Amino acid sequence: MSDRLMLLTYLAGVLLATSLHDLRVLGAGLLLTAALCGRALPRVLRRAVLAILLFNSVVTVSYVALSLWQGTFSPRYVLLVNLRVLLLATMTFLLAERFNPFRAFAFSPSLLFLTSLCYSQVLTLRRLFGEFRHAFRSRSIVRPGLRDLYRHGAATAAFFMRKSVSDAGEIARAMTSRGFFND
Amino acid sequence: MIELERVGYAYGGRTVLDELSFSMAPGEKTVLLGVNGSGKSTLLKILNGLIFPCRGRWRYKGREITARLLKDRDFSRTFRRQVVLLFQSPEAMIFNPTVFDEIAFGPRQLGLEDVDDRVRHWAGRVGVDAFLDRPPFDLSGGEKQKVCLAALLVLEPELLLLDEPTANLDPRSTGWLVDFLQDLPVTTLVTTHNLSLGAELGERTLVLSEEHRLIYDGRIDDLLGDREKLIEANLVHRHRHRHDGTEHRHYHVHQWK
Amino acid sequence: MHIPDGFISPKMYLPLYAVAAGCWAWAIRRLRRTLDERTIPWLAVLAALSFILMMVTIPLPGGSSVHATGICLLAVVFGVWPAFLAISLVLLIQALLFGTGGITSLPLNALAMGLVGGAIAAGVFRTLKGWNETAALAAAAWLSVMVPAFLVALALGLQPLIASAEDGTPLFFPFGVEVTLPALLLPHALLGVGEGLLTVLVYRLVRDLRREGGAA
């Protein structure tokens, strides 16, 4: 399936999952999505559940408590909202597994370039950010106090802000030298 | 001092370290050679208690280092003072407003007296005493690294781990670092992918292969004579080049002068 | 705010997408005027920066911590429209590429945080900085957290009103504004203080940073 089609199907699926409120339809949708996962099902399902667990638990528990107290409790709602959210999360993680933005966004070279450049920057920066975290832990002989935590956070943020300015310049120069901008 | 027993580490489904076993005695200066991606940084992070082995285990001074053990504040305090790591990017280590504060950070955390003297002593030893009032991010790469070194050594650690310390240094700074490390009476483990430099950084040499296993543990001189091992570890290369007018190919290393 | 998909009705997110799309088009047109070929790499880098800033943790007294947003810093240092586009892009990448979801809350977050939050931050800073720069920055940062929180609380709280079954049971988010407003505003008031402090500290370190395009 082409990536563009995959993306469109996903978007249509999201629209449907948020427009239909029949439990059976949503349930069927979840089964269908699970089937489409194939071997990746355990991984996709696990990630989906983890992603929604906190928010959904808080909302569900609060809803149950509040509605029981107000006398408006609807078990159907609890099922509906959790099913819908799980379905959407599963669809999203399934998309993330299969989706290749470099082909789906091909209809707009600018968007394509923008997303792929951003994505690769994020991956690089994330690794470096991890080093910052590790280094702070390594150097903290005792639990750091609030002042040190703020100092470190600020120094980290400032570093990445400066780096962005110089990175952007570098990338633009590299692109220019490769003739990217000669329209 | 350190004992690794079949340590393995994997991340994202990929093996990063495989069946590593070796030990280090106090006072040893060891070099860990390996190409990029062989797992050197990961090993150092394990030895610094930042991540923990997926398989096998390792001991520091006889105690097995686990995540739980490091949660114990007293142990953690001792461990983090004794075992320090110089990261490959010095920027990742720096976060204080001045060089003085940066070096003083550790001693202050320990509540030591005479922080001022200690800081000035080590700043002088590495050569950054002229910058004590400046913000560290203003300095050059080599100077930042010196600040980080001072910040680590001011704790008087017992084990100094260095992750590719010469990777971004110019030749003069590299020379300085080599001399400095040799004179330091601290157990050190330095990683590098530069074979020629490896000989200068320690007598004992460990080699990590691209398959993430330890394929050599011994003296550097013997390693330099073992061409097969060097090729296996991707520490030497071969390409066309010229000697005195004739062109040929053979395995070699570009020598540092 | 990370809201999993399924809590906002299409009756809200579809119109919001329309509004957001208009704002994006407007922002792009404005940027094209000031920047040139450097627009795309700059936006990509800024978006990545936004991603990282959102990973920075703000410690709170008591040992817990929350994540920063960085909206005030981005808007004040780099400009409201670039910040808006950068945040929108990061939300898109998070939703589709990192699979953290949120495609239905994207227009809400982009408009509330990226546009309104950024605009308020820049406006408040510009207005108050003559009086006291630090206070101006802290106020700007605090508001850049509070106002979007208010808007999101409003959006969530409206769900039971705009999308309920015939028997009155909710279909999406179940609580009205009387619950969402305090539930969101109170914690964000605290988070805003932390964000303010962080913003002030960072600004001191990056004051000299020249902005790429936009008004200096």
Characterize this entry briefly.
Chain A is mostly helical and 183 residues long.
What order do the helices and strands come in, and which of them pair?
The complex is a heterotrimer of chains A (183), B (257) and C (216).
Chain A: H1 3-19, H2 23-37, H3 41-70, H4 75-98, H5 101-104, H6 109-139, H7 146-177
Chain B: E1 2-11, E2 14-24, E3 29-33, H1 40-47, E4 55-60, E5 63-64, H2 67-71, H3 73-82, E6 83-86, H4 99-110, H5 115-126, H6 141-153, E7 159-163, H7 171-183, E8 187-192, H8 195-201, E9 204-208, E10 214-219, H9 220-225, H10 227-232, E11 237-243, E12 246-252
Parallel strand pairs in B: 3-8, 3-9, 6-7, 7-8
Antiparallel strand pairs in B: 1-2, 1-4, 4-5, 9-10, 11-12
Chain C: H1 10-34, H2 39-53, E1 57-59, E2 65-67, H3 71-78, H4 80-96, H5 106-128, H6 133-162, H7 177-206
Antiparallel strand pairs in C: 1-2
Helix pairs in contact in C: 1-4, 1-5, 2-4, 3-4, 3-5, 4-5, 5-6, 6-7
Can you walk me through this structure?
The complex is a heterotrimer of chains A (183), B (257) and C (216). With 183 residues, chain A is mainly α. Chain A has two domains: 3-101, no CATH class; 105-177, no CATH class. Chain A has seven helices and no strands. Chain A is flat and about 60 Å long. The model of chain A has no long low-confidence stretch (mean pLDDT 88). Chain B has 257 residues and is of the alpha/beta class. Chain B is built from ten helices and twelve strands. Chain B has a six-stranded mixed sheet with strand order 6-7-8-3-9-10, sandwiched between helices. In chain B, strands 2-1-4-5 form a four-stranded antiparallel sheet, covered by helices on one side. Chain B has a two-stranded antiparallel ribbon with strand order 11-12. In chain B, helix 4 (99-110) packs parallel to helix 6 (141-153). Chain B is globular and about 65 Å long. Chain C has helices at residues 10-34, 39-53, 71-78, 80-96, 106-128, 133-162, 177-206; strands at 57-59, 65-67. Residues 212-216 of chain C have low confidence and may be disordered. Chain C is mainly alpha-helical and 216 residues long. Chain C has a two-stranded antiparallel sheet. Helix content of chain C is 69%, strand content 3%. Chains in contact: A-B, A-C.
